[in-house]
Design goal:
Length: 282
């Protein structure tokens, strides 16, 4: 059985009880604490023990690629590849569960069955398809690269947010790869954020006009975060409250998603998080 968090916290920080160890362990998981050599060494030992158990349960020989402290400083996808190699995981079902869990972290939006929805508009040439389809209705819209244009909007709100952050997570399984087999920049895309979307004819346009679909096939999960009070930006944006709109890099994206979850727990009304999905084919 995996170690309970209380025992991991005790082993990492040497505190006498869960109440005193838990805050430090939580800060470590959220990236507020860096890894000291002692902490990384102990955590590597814990993970290696778990890997040994997993290998043995599957009838495989012992651990031949144990983790070392420096592995915990690797970029996310490289770390996942490191774990997969050490654990010798090859079956598609397990890898697909890992991919789904990863996408759940990278695309945290939920599109409730209510009046406020993130929607994807599809255009061909200069003509728009009739209306637009929200994800979860008739299924994700399919775009053909080089033929269609698209636009992302929010439907069902009657006032503008202070600002919006919008990112796309690309599920690359349709082209035969999982995200960690790709480069980060090929799987996580940002609209220049924060943006200042405007209500136009009942829609909050996150893109001022439709844009051509790029020739990158896959399933795309769009997430937008509407921030209702500009003062909340300092709690959300890891670049600071005065940063120019742009794309967040890998470290900034990770911190943004962490800040988002914390802000939601602190004040659920501070942000509205919505998602939709679409598919791109060549």
């Amino acid at each position: 059985m995996p170690l309970p968090e209380s025992e991991i916290a005790f082993r990492l920080f040497g505190e006498g009880n869960w109440e005193s160890s838990a805050p430090k362990f939580s800060k470590l998981l959220y990236g507020d604490y860096g890894f000291s050599l002692d902490t990384a060494t102990e955590l590597a030992a814990i993970v290696n023990k778990r890997l040994e158990v997993s290998l043995g349960a599957r009838g495989l020989s012992g651990l031949t690629e144990p983790l070392v402290p420096s592995d915990f400083t690797l970029p996310l996808y490289e770390f996942i590849r490191r774990i997969q190699s050490a654990a010798r995981i090859e079956d598609d079902e397990t890898l697909d569960r890992a991919q789904d869990a990863l996408l759940g972290e990278l695309a945290p939006g939920a599109n409730p069955q209510g009046p406020v929805r993130l929607v994807i508009e599809k255009f061909a040439g200069n003509r728009s398809f009739d209306g637009f389809l929200p994800s979860g209705g008739d299924g994700p819209i399919v775009f053909e690269a080089g033929r269609h244009k698209g636009r992302i909007a929010v439907r069902g709100i009657d006032h503008e947010p202070a600002m919006a952050y919008t990112l796309l997570a690309r599920d690359t399984r349709p082209v035969g790869f999982r995200c960690w087999q790709m480069n980060w920049r090929d799987t996580i895309l940002w609209l220049p954020s924060p943006s200042l979307p405007r209500l136009v004819e009942g829609q909050l346009l996150l893109m001022p006009e439709a844009a051509p679909v790029q020739p990158a096939p896959g399933r795309f999960l769009a997430t937008t975060v509407l921030l209702w009070d500009a003062d909340g930006r300092k709690l959300l944006d890891p670049r600071g409250a005065a940063a120019e709109p742009g794309a967040l890099d890998e470290d900034e994206t990770a911190r943004f998603l962490t800040n988002l979850r914390r802000l939601q727990r602190r004040d659920s009304g501070a942000v509205t998080v919505l998602s939709a999905e679409y598919i791109v084919t060549l």
